[in-house]
Design brief:
Layout: E1 2-8, H1 12-23, E2 28-32, E3 44-45, H2 72-76, H3 78-94, E4 99-101, E5 114-117, E6 123-126, E7 128-130, E8 146-152, H4 160-168, E9 173-179, H5 182-185, H6 196-203, H7 206-219, E10 225-229, H8 238-246, E11 250-254, H9 261-276, E12 280-283, E13 287-293, E14 296-302, E15 310-317, E16 328-330, E17 333-335, E18 343-344, E19 367-368, E20 377-378, E21 381-382, E22 386-388, H10 398-401, H11 404-421
Parallel strand pairs: 1-2, 1-15, 2-12, 8-9, 8-10, 10-11, 15-22
Antiparallel strand pairs: 3-7, 4-7, 5-6, 13-14, 14-15, 16-17, 18-19, 20-21
Helix pairs in contact: 1-9, 1-11, 3-11
Length: about 425
């Protein structure tokens, strides 16, 4: 089987890159093992919220010059980062995913970070957010006086006490209530079904979200803010807007414990777009046994297809970092398991773990060593037709920096441009 480009990984970076390549006319295959980091997303994307030295970032584009030379954004370049970030909302809109920025601009005219309320009751910086996910201009000041926090009876993955405590620290008087719906109660017969996605499937039915909205409206006692678990709009986020129109107060949807309904919704829509453009998505399979000719990859195999060779002119590796199992960790080393690529790390696994369990861990910069075009090194030499995108790229600590989604999207766009320009 032959393709123009084969992408390994089914998450944000791979899908963005694959869609861009399909739009250019490339024949593409995505090989996806299954669950990815999108399943843990709470519906907001971070571009950059903190520099490696801990300095808080308010205007991400204005702060790019302070990043080290091996950071993915530095390799892309300031002008290209600005260009790609300015087209991100339009790209996702073309995939049926509405995103909105923070309601304020920075002092220098650069896009500014907003702040979303997390399931832990804290406020976290964000660059863009999905419909129904509120971004505030400040983490220090809120304008609400009273909040009603509503949960489904028996749903344990939405901790209302954390949210109430967090808002209480901001001076908001909170009241917690629970709603009982017969269709949701039916999930409690099997404890494994009382999860966010199970509830979301039920809430896709008009009669159920309307009944829920009516009950919340009855519970409201004059609060100016109503907080609901983000288990609505798995099929169409417009349900969050309709619920907001039903309830006479500002309505905020707050993420639950994983699996994440908004994150899964993003992956579903991106996958649908990729396939509607003619891309092939191979789900539930893993890449193994690559073939090389000199400094080029000629083919890969997969666990399910056995001896069948999947050949392509170019390959893109976007299977995630340590979290996504795109990198392996053992007591003595870190490794990239598919192609055997060179991995940059500050030391062996033992040296990164402190005796104090709660001390910060030193995973900054662990990733595949790449050149400025995100082509990886293998045994010290660059592979000419293999590219790396997303969290597998070394040079940053995306969790600490709050740059995970931004790195995934922007490296994917950069790699797509490199592949297209080399056609």
């Amino acid at each position: 089987m032959r393709f123009d480009t084969i992408l390994i990984g089914g998450g944000l970076a791979s899908l963005v890159c694959g869609i861009q390549l399909r739009k250019s006319g490339q024949d593409c295959l995505i090989v996806s093992a299954g669950q990815n980091a999108l399943h843990f997303s709470s519906g907001a994307f971070g571009l950059l919220s903190r520099l490696p030295d801990g300095t808080e970032v308010h205007e991400p584009l204005k702060s790019l010059s302070f990043l080290p030379a091996n950071h993915p954004y530095s390799k892309i370049g300031v002008d290209k980062v600005a260009e790609y970030s300015s087209t991100t909302v339009g790209f996702f809109d073309s995939c049926g995913i509405g995103l909105h920025p923070a309601p304020v601009q920075g002092d220098g005219g650069f896009p500014a970070n907003g702040y979303r309320l997390t399931p832990m009751g804290t406020f976290k910086p964000a660059w863009l957010a999905m419909e129904g996910v509120t971004l505030l201009p400040s983490k220090d000041k809120v304008n609400w006086k009273k909040a009603l926090i509503v949960n489904f009876s028996g749903f344990l993955d939405f901790n209302t006490s954390f949210i109430a405590e967090g808002l209480g620290n901001k001076g908001v008087d909170c009241r917690v209530e629970r709603v009982i719906l017969d269709d949701v109660e039916s999930l409690r017969k099997n404890p494994t079904e009382m999860r966010s996605v199970g509830i979301a499937r039920i809430m896709n039915k008009e009669k159920n979200w309307k009944e829920f909205g009516a009950k919340v409206k009855e519970l409201r006692g004059g609060e100016d803010l109503v907080i609901l678990p983000d288990v609505f709009g798995l099929g169409d986020r417009i349900i969050t807007r309709w619920l907001g129109e039903m309830i006479p107060a500002e309505v905020m949807f707050v993420g639950t414990m994983p699996p994440s309904v908004p994150g899964i919704g993003v992956q579903m829509r991106l996958k649908k777009t990729f396939e509607s453009l003619g891309g092939t998505f191979l789900s539930g399979d893993i890449a193994i046994n690559p073939l090389f000719e000199g400094n080029r990859v000629t083919a890969i195999h997969t666990a399910n297809l056995g001896s069948i060779e999947l050949r392509a002119d170019n390959f893109v590796l976007a299977s995630g970092g340590l979290f996504g199992k795109g990198l392996d960790a053992s007591p003595d080393k870190f490794a990239e398991p598919v192609f055997g690529l060179d991995v940059d790390s500050p030391g062996d696994s033992h040296s990164l773990c402190d005796e104090d369990f709660f001390s910060p861990q030193g995973f900054a910069g662990i990733g595949v060593r790449c050149d400025d075009s995100f082509r990886p090194f293998r045994n010290g030499g660059v592979l000419e037709n293999l590219y790396v995108a997303g969290s597998e790229v070394g040079g940053c600590n995306s969790l600490y920096e709050g740059s995970g989604a931004g790195v995934a999207i922007l490296t994917a766009m950069s790699v797509a441009d490199s592949v297209i320009s080399g056609q």
